[in-house]
Structure formats: structure tokens, C-alpha cells
Amino acid sequence: ETEPIKFRNHNILTFNFIEPLDFYDILVKKNESEHHSRKIIKDVKYLKRLAFDFLYGLHLLEEAQVIHNDLKFDNLLATAVDKDNFPSCYIIDYGNACFSEKLTSTQTSCSSLFVKHYTSPEALLGYNCTTKCDMWAFGNILARLPLGYRPRDGGNDLTDQLIEVMETIGLPPPHLLENSLALKKFYLAMDRINSE
Questions:
Q1: β strands within 1-75, DSSP E
Q2: Which of 96-105, 108-117, 121-130 is predicted with the least confidence, judged by mean pLDDT?
Q3: Rounded CA gap, 20 and 40, in Å?
Q4: Which residues have a Cβ under 8 Å from the Cβ of 58 and sit 6 or more positions away?
Q5: How far apart are CA 180 and CA 175, in angstroms?
Q6: Catalytic one of 25, 70, 82, 153
């Protein structure tokens, strides 16, 4: 454990060197289909171990009041297998991370930093990101592993993503809409839904 290095008013984090292994090669088995091939995790024990490692990492980030802001499948690193033949999984790439206490109510939303497939509903509505946004991304990543594809396509833009979220979990509560910085996006989504 080391202290961050300050460089040009940025914190530079240092980590132990990890010999990375291909995440897919360790955890994922190929599933051929006539239309496409997709990679899925079939073993529930692997899914549980992955979820545990990932949640432990999110717990540590929340304790440190750090929001990752870029959680996606590509930002998981698998390392050599342990004595139980399970690989360890780490969250990597903190380039878009920020400290949650530095976000203010006047700061613009960080939703533009998220990959659209993993963006939380509150970020889509223009609210500041919290560690809860990272938890939403975790759920999307975890759902993708046994399916072999993203649970939602994300469409062409963040409005399409908002439509897919509303189709999955319903309309946002009124209090979220009242203070939304992206209310126009919500009405665009409603127009697209009603025109179908």
C-alpha cells in the first residue's frame, strides 16, 4: 500500500505489478451459435467469485469515497488462479475516477464519462454520479457474463439508453424528474416510446 504521488495537481496511483491474463481465456467459454459466437461464463462458482471480488473492490472504493466512473467489462483484470483454481479479479483504469466529496450540487453531471451501456438512470437524468452509479454498472456487467451479451443494447444515444432503462424498471420517480438537469432527454424518450 502506497500513498498517491502528486503530479500537476493530479493524484497518481501506484499498484503492485500484476501479470495479467486474458479475462476471457480464464473465465469464459466460447459458445458457438449459427448467427454469432459469444463468450459466456457457465460456471456459477466462477460468477460468484467474480461478483465477490468485484463487490469487495466497490466496497473499498466507497470507503475511500471514490467513484470509478468507467466501470465496464474491459476494466476488469484477471490474474493467476489461486489454490482453489479460481482467478482473482481486479478493477482497473481509474483515469475517470473522482472523489465523491468533491462533487457539488452545482457541478455538471459526469454521465458523459460513462459507457452508455453501463450508465445509471440518475446519471442519464443529469444527476451527479455517486458510488451507486458504479453499483449499477456492476449489475450490468454481472448480467452480461452468463448471457454473453449486454442486457441492454443502448441504442444510438443516451436517450435510447434511458428508454431501455424505463422499459426495464419503469418511469423515474417524480422527484427525480423535478430536479433533473436532463429533463429534455426524458421527454424525448417519452416521445419515442409513444410514437412506437
A1: 5-7, 10-12, 29-32, 37-40, 66-67
A2: 108-117
A3: 20
A4: 91, 131, 134, 135, 138
A5: 9
A6: 70
Q: How large is the C-alpha radius of gyration of the chain?
A: 18
Of the ranges 13-22, 23-32, 54-63, 153-162, which one carries the lowest mean pLDDT score? 23-32
> In angstroms, how far apart are the furthest CA atoms of the chain?
56
Q: Is 157 one of the annotated active-site residues of the chain? A: no
Do 78 and 22 touch, CB atoms closer than 8 A?
Answer: yes
Q: What is the pTM of this model?
A: 0.77
Helix (H) or strand (E) holding 80: strand 76-81
Cell matching residue 146: 452468463
CB-based burial of residue 167 (10 Å sphere; 0-12 exposed, 13-18 middle, 19+ buried)?
Answer: exposed
Q: Bridge-partner residues for 76, per DSSP?
A: 91
CA distance 188 to 169: 18
How far, in Å, are 34, 42, 94, 106, 147 from residue 150 at the CA level?
19, 16, 22, 33, 7
Residues with Cβ within 8 Å of residue 52, at least 6 apart in sequence: none
Cα–Cα distance measured from residue 99 to residue 62, given in angstroms and rounded to the nearest whole number: 10
What is the enclosing helix (H) or strand (E) of 122? helix 121-124
